[in-house]
Amino acid sequence: MQFHGSLELKYHSSCHLYAVIVKLKRKIRVFFGFSSAETNGLILLIPIVLLILSVPSILRKILEGQDEQNNLEDARILQAWLEESRSKIKAKKEPIISLTSFNPNKITFDQWIALGFDKKIAHRIINYREKGGTFRKKKDLLKIYGINKELVMANYDYIILPEARRSSTLKTLPSKGITKERATKKKIIKIDLNLADTAQLRQIKGIGPVLSSRIIKYRKALGGFTHMSQLKEVYGIKNDIHQKIKTHFNIQATDILKVNINQDSIKLLARHPYISYPISRAIVKYRKQHGDYRFIEELKKIHIISDSIYQIMAPYIEASGAE
Does this model's pTM top 0.85? Predict the structure, then answer.
């Protein structure tokens, strides 16, 4: 009974749809003046056109779904890569830079490692010492083949060599005709600008913690002071301050740390305050084109290095290791 009812319902629905189509065809023929064949063609064309118009929308949705899946996959890959990178960074051991003084002629193999030097370099230093080698100056460390120059420079101020130590001297006035009290007032403390630490610098009136740190930092960047006027290049030391403090300094230690134009990279050369990046790039380019420098005077052949620039740079440059 239910089956017959279902068939009957479908029959009535089909009849209703047929009646609607017949009515629609009649209105089209009347309105447009089409023939029966033209009307039938139009009725078939309409769903095809609607299908064609809906294709872009359907394709867009499909592509958006694929893009979303791709984006999710890309995000997953990126996240995995980031996690892997973080784990590698954590696993990587950064070199340890010592903040305490040490004598390179005495410290052990393990202490060299603790300073951040490679095991090969530590073995090389120990072998050098066992064969009678001695570091008399700080820059003698740079003679060790393959040593990390940047690491040496980072520890430069903490290297202690008895031969390099100089005690501060006192410049006194003749005592004849001057009372003990007046002579005491006239004493001028003379500190070696290349050996003084921040505590000694702060003893000078006009130099506080900030200026003393800047002086040490600039000295380290230079490789050592060669003349007193360089103090004016330290940020914060104006001409009036320079005039007040310069009488308290002298320059006796001449153990200047130099850059090597035959070995150092563009990056390392450009770190020096007197060598700009364009100049360091020109130095290395000239070296690649013409071979190692035999003398530092060859820098004058580079057109961007004027005579005045060369004169400023010269005390801090060496051309050792030429082949």
Answer: no
